[in-house]
């Protein structure tokens, strides 16, 4: 993969190709100010100033050229020039007027390639964007690195991204930042985190379930707990999925990928918090010792759960992880999970569902999402549906009967493991792009990550 630090450079007047970004409303004025050779090229390409129009414009010398893009996106959009970051040949570029600003991020994200399993095709050299705002480069690259990390982890097939591989990823970011990493597995996991153990106990040797924890920061700072669902592959268990439903289940650890990548940003940017990252890493497999529909599961909190659906396993492992997070007396808990298909039916692939037990926290996250052009959509923790979790033989069920309010009842299940006095938000996200957009290729992707980071910066002061 291209060295990301090479993709954004301070503008010191070095030679560079020019990019003209023209809004449709200013198209005629811009065209009138161009030399005849440019107007002739525009006419030859039959450009009308419609958003999406583009052309290579000739310069005065034979080998001199610049790029034209007609774009109606706001200057605050990260993806304003992302299509050029992907399509232009390698080289150095600057905008003809203004600064790239937020668009630096999309420029970098457009140059992502997942080529771990490809032998053919030489990688294209970097497309470098110059900026007169060098102070924005570092954070932009950190967010790009985090996004690339999510994409890489989610795109990697389950055979190469099991619980042990997630553990190795946490170990790597811990070592790079001087953090402490602790892993609980085996008998200790069974006794201390019985739901994580139950979900993952049918996995093959070498892919055993575990709870991975990373701790970093000044103990005097407020504690921030990041919790990620790390189901490295989900067969559905004994309530087995059809093959079509299993096809993308390598992405069921997308929540863990988000939590891990965000933790790396928090540490790299030295956010003044005491970070506690928790990744519940399992594979929900089918075997003779798999947990069964109807089993009553113990939990770390002491509650009992009647397992009504082995394919509703994510909330089980998160329940134990959230309980451990609460024990650290955090100021804030954020959990990330590819939790329910029903959230995708309701909101589609682009919008993560946001649940929060604190209205001020929810408002801050929504505002941050709007500002970062990384939208979230709040759904309610509707108390009236809490009775759907009632069990005849245990404290609750993990999955109610019937098709109604799936994302909400899943969030209500998680809420039972978080005391009211601790601010908590839950993101039910897809972590996958079913179709490519500029700067956002088809495949694994980060969703809500920039929004959460913007909220954290404002909450704790970067």
UniProtKB/TrEMBL annotation:
Keywords: Aminopeptidase, Hydrolase, Manganese, Protease
Superkingdom per UniProt: Bacteria
Alphabetized GO MF terms: aminopeptidase activity
Presence of the UniProt keyword Hydrolase in the record: yes
Domain Cytosol aminopeptidase: 309-316
Keyword Protease: yes
Similarity comment text for this entry: Belongs to the peptidase M17 family.
Protein name listed in UniProt: Leucyl aminopeptidase family protein
